[in-house]
């Protein structure tokens, strides 16, 4: 069944199912084309007639990532689906009415180079079922999103997320959401972006709560580290490291040079590589979010999985890459916001890869989105492995996220709650 919602940019057609209404690929900014890929997000010009929001849209240009026998397509999605207009959001809502429901805005992970709203894990049926409006966000990735270039604003992917939050402020009421009751949540790179929003003055007032899942408050590159990546990219492309020169280069060529950027030594006299070599892209900041002025008025739910590094075959990587940065961000926020910092540790061990995956990076996501029973997450290559998950664990985790977004209280105090099943 088709439904329709009105927005300031024009009308959008969506679809209705037993869980509510779904509107896909709604632009929150103009298409980033040519040199525009290295400019701040621009307002979308709007459209006439009714825009079709019943089908998924294009994704940001991105490479294929391979995790061997483990099927990570539910996490990464279909990869690069070509099309210029990919700065879009998907909206899942119980109904596009005047309901004024809590809103959750999800920022996907993928190492700042991959991911999209089309990933199966981010299905919002359970949130709509439980009275929440879910908005999932695409943003620029890789070279267009995060390479530091002369003549271009830094952190363009973060600027995209800010533009999407402004779209939520101005539009979500037309989808049954309350623009004054917004929770931003992200995982991995998306969590690092979410943490940075807490220290971004331009984000003030755009959301009331934040959830940081397996991210880092110390995951940003220093300007010196970013300059090394830029120099390597310019050398690989044979181009000057400027927005003007890069604006004439195709997205295909940007993807072709990614192997030349892998494994760069980003250690300096004053900083280690905050991503431990997993990605040549990150935010570029003079001060880490955990060390900067945070918005203490925003309530925070923050945590990690107990065996993050297992996804990469490096068990010790998780405490260095995610644990330390999460701890510092949590402590910094708690010092400013007494009683509004809530922490968790996720320890359920997936039986994937003959039990070697365990409570690895990404394993909490099926429980947050309450899709842990889906067949495509199980079997010999599924993220959760061949065994069924514990009864009630997904309801408990998902319920805590919904409670936090609805009331600011996930159901526990300042102590760290543990999810083990």
UniProtKB/TrEMBL annotation:
Residues 5-311 form the Carboxylesterase type B domain. It comes from the Bacteria. It is an enzyme of class 3 (hydrolase). The keyword Hydrolase applies. Keywords: Hydrolase. PROSITE patterns: CARBOXYLESTERASE_B_1, LIPASE_GDXG_HIS. SUPFAM superfamilies: alpha/beta-Hydrolases. Its EC number is 3.1.1.-. One of its GO terms (molecular function) is hydrolase activity. Pfam families: COesterase. Residues 47-68 are annotated as: Disordered. Gene3D superfamilies: alpha/beta hydrolase. Belongs to the 'GDXG' lipolytic enzyme family. This is Carboxylic ester hydrolase.
């Amino acid at each position: 069944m088709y439904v329709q919602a009105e927005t300031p940019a024009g009308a959008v057609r969506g679809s209705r199912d037993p869980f509510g209404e779904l509107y896909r690929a709604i632009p929150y900014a103009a298409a980033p084309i040519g040199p525009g890929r290295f400019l701040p997000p621009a307002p979308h010009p709007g459209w006439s007639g009714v825009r079709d929001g019943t089908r998924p849209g294009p994704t940001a240009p991105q490479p294929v990532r391979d995790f061997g026998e483990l099927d990570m397509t539910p996490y990464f999605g279909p990869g690069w689906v070509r099309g210029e207009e990919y700065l879009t959001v998907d909206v899942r809502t119980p109904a596009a009415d005047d309901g004024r429901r809590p809103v959750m805005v999800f920022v996907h992970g993928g190492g700042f180079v991959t991911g999209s709203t089309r990933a199966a894990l981010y299905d919002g049926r359970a949130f709509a079922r439980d009275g929440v409006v879910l908005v999932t966000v695409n943003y620029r990735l890789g070279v267009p999103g995060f390479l530091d270039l002369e003549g271009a604003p830094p952190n363009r992917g973060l600027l995209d997320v800010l533009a999407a939050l402004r779209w939520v402020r101005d539009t979500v009421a037309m989808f049954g959401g309350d623009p004054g009751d917004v929770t931003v949540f992200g995982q991995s790179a998306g969590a690092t972006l979410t943490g940075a929003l807490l220290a971004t003055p331009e984000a003030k007032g755009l959301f009331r709560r934040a959830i940081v899942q397996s991210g880092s408050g110390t995951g940003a590159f220093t300007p010196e580290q970013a300059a090394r990546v830029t120099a390597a990219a310019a050398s690989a492309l044979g181009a000057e490291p400027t927005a003007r020169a890069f604006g004439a280069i195709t997205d295909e060529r940007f993807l072709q040079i990614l192997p030349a950027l892998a494994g760069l030594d980003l250690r300096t006299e004053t900083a280690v590589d905050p991503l431990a070599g997993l990605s040549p892209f990150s935010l570029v900041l003079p001060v880490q979010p955990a060390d900067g002025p945070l918005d203490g008025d925003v309530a925070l739910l923050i945590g990690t999985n107990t065996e993050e590094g297992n996804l990469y075959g490096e068990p010790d990587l998780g405490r260095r890459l995610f644990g330390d940065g999460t701890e510092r961000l949590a402590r910094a926020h708690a010092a400013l916001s007494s009683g509004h910092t809530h922490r968790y540790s996720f320890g359920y061990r997936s039986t994937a890869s003959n039990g070697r995956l365990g409570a690895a990076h990404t394993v909490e996501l099926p429980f947050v989105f309450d899709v842990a029973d889906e067949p495509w997450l199980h079997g010999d290559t599924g993220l959760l492995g061949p065994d069924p998950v514990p009864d009630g664990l997904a309801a408990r985790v998902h319920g805590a996220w919904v409670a936090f977004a609805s009331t600011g209280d996930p159901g526990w105090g300042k102590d760290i709650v543990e999810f083990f099943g």
